[in-house]
Design brief:
- With 363 residues, the protein is an alpha+beta fold.
- The protein is 31% helix and 25% strand.
- The chain is built from nine helices and eleven strands.
- The strands form three sheets. It has a four-stranded mixed beta sheet with strand order 1-6-7-8, covered by helices on one side. The protein has a four-stranded mixed beta sheet with strand order 4-3-2-9. The protein has a three-stranded antiparallel beta sheet with strand order 5-10-11.
- Helix 2 links the parallel strand 3 and strand 4.
- Helix 1 crosses helix 2 and helix 4 packs across helix 5.
- The relative contact order is 0.18.
């Protein structure tokens, strides 16, 4: 049986990613000064206007406007931006629910973690490939600043045969560019310096389709081509649609927010199940209630790819992992300024991140 599956990624200049990166730089600055900061500060951007808003309970002194402008400049946009800040102190009710004898969940919610053996990173092939294309497009546009500009998107359609990756059916790359550059020049650069550098030729054949700037001219980009908001790229941030997503975004949130830390730990567990060859695919669902230190439920699914039953795997998980909020924060060392490094090209599959580490499991 053959079927196609598609995932996409975006570059740092995409307006939603601009906002994600601003939010995570703000979080990192708060944690750098005060590791126990409680932060949920987001951003919205349109044209040259940035709104920074949310709740913060921190001892840190944060220049929100400067961080936003520095991030935008780092991305590669040189316009003069106006920044409005509306940040209040976090609700005392929420704050009191989180901090007690044990660290508790900052909200209710459900999170998913996923891993499979389709790639070295234990990520689904399509999203892994789309991220590598976007990351390489970012690198190449910085090498050709007079030709390519910051906003860009990638998309990969993978053909499966009997649940195995067989070939790449379609590659889509859209990149912002200078007004005086021909589409032929852009296609040549993207094909030779991005696509052919990323995708192994064994997955490409005479029927693979390449759609480079399929809409034609792409001169106006970033916040001048569209609006952006923190948290709107959660499918890009997770598993490219290959696995379910939870109810909340990741960027902007400190580790007491289980939307983030719970999702990281669920990935950690799922990857360890696959990396230890207990299953070829593994999906973990975990759910929390606000003010409670441990999950209300944990579920595991391996789609018939394990010699163990789901109940047996759940027993293995409970013997090797601790989903309490306090343990997640401590085991993964999450009260550190590491979050700006998570924002671009997915929060999962990056080998240096603590939730990507593999340990020997007691079976």
């Amino acid at each position: 049986m053959k079927n196609l599956f598609t995932s996409e990624s975006v570059t740092s200049g995409h307006p939603d990613k601009i906002c994600d990166w601003i939010a995570d730089h703000i979080l990192d600055e708060a944690l750098r000064q005060d590791p126990y900061s409680h932060m949920a500060v987001e951003a919205t951007i349109k044209d040259n206007f940035v709104l920074i808003y949310g709740e913060a309970n921190t001892k840190a002194e944060i220049d929100y406007a400067k961080i936003a402008k520095d991030v935008i400049k780092k991305i590669g946009y040189d316009e003069d931006y106006e920044v409005l800040v509306k940040v209040n102190k976090q609700s005392a009710e929420i704050d009191n629910a989180v901090d007690g004898e044990q660290v508790c969940a900052g909200d209710q919610g459900l999170m998913f973690g996923y891993a499979c053996d389709e790639s070295i990173s234990c990520m689904p092939f399509a999203i892994d490939c789309a991220h590598m294309l976007a990351k390489t497009l970012e690198k190449v546009r910085r090498e050709h600043p007079d030709i390519l500009k910051p906003d860009g998107k990638t998309q990969v359609s993978v053909e499966y045969e009997n649940n195995q990756v067989k070939r790449v059916d379609t590659v889509v790359v859209s990149t912002q560019h200078s007004p005086n550059v021909s589409q032929e020049t852009i296609k040549e650069i993207v094909m030779n310096e991005v696509i052919n550098k990323v995708i192994d030729s064994k997955y490409l054949d005479e029927n693979t389709k390449y759609l480079i700037n399929p809409s034609g001219s792409f001169i106006v980009g970033g916040s001048f081509g569209d609006s952006g908001t923190t948290g709107r790229k959660i499918v890009v941030d997770t598993y490219g649609g290959y696995a379910p997503i939870g109810g909340g975004c990741l960027s902007s949130k400190d580790p007491t927010k289980v939307d983030r830390s719970g999702a990281y730990y669920a990935r950690y567990v799922a990857k360890n199940i696959v990396a230890n060859k207990l299953a070829k695919k593994c999906l973990i669902q975990v759910a929390y209630a606000i003010g409670k230190p441990t999950p209300v439920s944990i579920n595991v699914e391996t789609y018939g790819t394990s010699k163990y039953s789901n109940q047996e795997l759940l027993d293995i998980i409970n013997n090797n992992f601790d989903f309490s909020v306090e343990n997640i924060i401590n085991e993964l060392s999450l009260r550190r300024p590491i979050y700006a490094d998570t924002t671009l090209y997915g929060h999962f599959g990056k080998p240096k991140m603590p939730w990507e580490q593999v340990k020997e499991l007691k079976i």
